């Protein structure tokens, strides 16, 4: 049981990251099409890759830290209840 609580939220975490990455890439593509002329294809591609990398890293790190915090709290609560500690 303790192992299941420690691994909580893994499916939600992966779904949220995929959804946020798709949203971020769609947003960046729309705005970069307006801001960067088509003749600057190299600059456009490099900027797009950099933005994609930044989005992936930031969303992954934020959700990882939030998930670890929530799972840590659940783990502590389970241990306290298991030992019959109330306060």
Descriptive account of the structure:
The chain is an all-alpha fold and 87 residues long. The chain has one domain. The protein is 84% helix and 0% strand. Helix 2 packs antiparallel against helix 3. The chain is rod-shaped, with a radius of gyration of 20 Å. The chain starts with a helix and ends in a 5-residue tail after the last helix. The mean pLDDT is 66. Keywords: Membrane, Transmembrane, Transmembrane helix.
Shape: rod-shaped
Instruction: Compute the number of helices.
Output: 3
Based on CA atoms alone, the radius of gyration comes out at 20 Å
Give the biggest beta sheet: none
The helicity comes to over 70%
What structural category arises from helix and sheet content? mainly alpha
Low-confidence stretches: none
Mean pLDDT: 66
How would you spell out the order of helices and strands?
HHH
Strand content: under 5%
- The overall strand count is 0
How many domains make up the coordinates? 1
In angstroms, what separates the terminal alpha carbons? 22 Å
Key terms for this structure?
about 85% helix; 3 helices; about 90 residues; mainly alpha
Topology:
Elements: H1 2-6, H2 10-35, H3 41-82
Helix pairs in contact: 2-3
Explain briefly what this protein structure is.
The chain has 87 residues and is an all-alpha fold. Helices cover 84% and strands 0% of the residues.
